[in-house]
Amino acid sequence: MKIKKANPFEYNEVAEFVACVGVNGGYGDPVIRDGYRDAVYAIMKEVSENSLEDQYVYPIVYCARHSIELPILPCRRRHFRSSSVVKGKRMGRMRLELQFKRAAEMRFREHMDKHALKREGKLKDAALIFGYSTLYNLLDFSDNFCNWLQEHNLSYMYICDIPVKAWNEFLEEKSAAKVSMNTLKNYKSRINTWEKIINAAFKTDIKWSKGLEIPYRLTPEEEEIKRIQQMRREDFEMLMEYIRKTGSKSKAVAALELSTMFGLRAEGTSRMKVRNVHLDKKGLWDLGTIDITEKGNRHRIIDIKSENDRKVIEKMIEGKSPDDRLVPIKKDSVNKFLNRIMKTTGIKEKYPETSIHSFRKMYAQETWDNCREKDHSLDEALRYVNRQLGHGEERNKPLLAVYVKNMW
User: Fold this and answer.
1) Residue 108's beta-bridge partner residues?
2) What digits encode the pLDDT tens for the residues 239-252?
3) Confidence (pTM)
4) Pairwise CA distance, residues 288 & 282, whole Å
5) Which of 27, 270, 306, 407 has the greatest CB tally within 10 Å of its CB?
6) What span, in angstroms and rounded, lies between the C-alpha atoms of 305 and 406?
7) Mean of the per-residue pLDDT values for the chain?
8) Nearest-CA neighbor of 288 among 306, 270, 273, 271?
């Protein structure tokens, strides 16, 4: 038992110090009751010897009252005692903010070098806090969460009562408020850290980490992509029919065909050379492949997916040397031509924010449909389409859904 010699008339909110009367004992033990009773007799004796009735009347009544209350309220006393204990470690009747603070103080190790302990192999307890910066960051986060609970009228008496659902709703709201993905991951890390600290401090068995989910957030680049619509095949055919009727000789027409066949960006259509075409390689559909280096200098191999596409490519490379470009045009010229044709045909009203990227999305949908029609599983189709788009097989489903609207 620690004895804190402090001014009893000053406010002091430290849970580990308990004022005791009489013999020090357990919370609610009979010795505390007897201590109040004996205090009455001791004070009365002092009064009788020194005639100080006015000065001692309050402490006499106070101690007498408690000596009576404690034995007649055993049920309430037992309830208070049991509710103040979690898995054998007293948590106390404190607000949630103070419970977080208490747990942090119990696991804080001031003036200790975490890295030195690691090097010496002495750091066996992972649920410790080293450094004031870490301590303050954790407490700021817990205060933020407790304020959020209050704003949403969610009340929990003890930390161990907080369900993982509350944490997930907290993260979802932060995500909706446009908090970055890195910040959300940092929040999750802090929740996991608090779980370890609280379990170690209060001997609880909280398992928030098992059900914790980070809401997926698109990057600014992905948000931009999301705003671009997917071109419908019938609208594309309408554009091409208009171009054929007007007899346009623009090189941009071939660039649009390349984009549709392989999901290329405008940059890729203007960069592709004859040596990038490999009609001798089978690919997934046994029709050949092409390879291209596009955005971010990323290289990928794309399969030719139909007999018609192969014939178009054969015609494009006919009579050209390996280093000749299939379509000698600047990427800006491709987008300008497309926008001009879309405005002329009235299709621009249907796709007000679109560009050649809408063709890339149409390619993604049709490639997905081809995979599913060939009895590829959802996972196989997901990986294949991601690979063909140059996203990498492991890119998530929410991002691909930006491209493939009908993921059947």
Assistant:
1) 129
2) 999 998 998 889 99
3) 0.45
4) 5
5) 270
6) 19
7) 79
8) 306
